[in-house]
Amino acid sequence: MKILITGCAGQIGSELTLELRKIYGNENIIASDIKEASKSIMKSGPFELLNVLDKEAMRNIIHKHNISGIFHLAAILSAVGEKNPMFAWNINMGGLINVLELGKEEKLERILCPSSIAAFGPETPTENTPQETVLRPTTMYGITKVAGELLANYYVQKYGMDVRGLRYPGIISNGALPGGGTTDYAVAIYYDAIKYGKYTCFVNANTQLPMMYMPDCLKATIDLFRADKKDLKRFVDYNVGSMSFDVTELANSIKKYIPNFEIDYMPDYHQAIADSWPNSVDDSCAREEWGWKPSYNLDAMTQDMLKAIKIKLDKGEI
Q1: Which of 24, 141, 213, 296 is catalytic?
Q2: Is 141 tagged catalytic?
Q3: What domains lie within the chain, and their CATH numbers?
């Protein structure tokens, strides 16, 4: 299978591209973004500049590389989307429509287009949020995710396409820097802990959200993409969970390894977004249908994050 990845320069795309190249071979994973990606992506396999709103350019790439599958990751995230809602709508929905239409027209084998806990809203149950529940988000990013789930499911039902998706929690990574999401504090806190020994958080101390470490994120994404279709009862909206903690718990985990670490709080517009999202999710469907199971807890993630970031700092990479 030859696979196109859109948004390869983003937080998830930058690591998923390299992981998929290990599995399928460098030449079979075609990375794309509107800007050049990391050196490791550019050097290890094919790369194409692509604006996902340019349907014919995407079609040309599909023909050029004989693409049979797409991981569609290009999107404007929650915090950036609230600053420019119509831009977020145009990119998130326009890009997805192009991918789905090309999937239909070019008879692609499989498409994966992730959703997010941003699809939930303040009326959604916050504890162990059910798979089937109220989807009434209050951000443009969340609105595009709900619309995207419905649209992708329409293409599955109407055209018999194989389109899959999972609702990402907050993703924590020591690879690419945060890209404008509400959960970015859970990445930035580690960098500032190493560099400065302190961090000012843009949400309050008791803000609790579902989170996932990047290795588990990659595993969940790839496992769903490779799952046997006959085992799937759902398609585009699987809840996936790993761990859930508030900012105080996160800070205390860091203090176990950096005892003098200090944190203070200066909540801003991110707080209202975070308050509209769940504290934890029920991912029993993913566990039952395609064997989802996370590997990392909070302290294991903290140890790995601090070790990786310190190595980067020592090398002068940050």
Answers
A1: 141
A2: yes
A3: 3-170+214-239 (3.40.50.720), 172-211+243-314 (3.90.25.10)
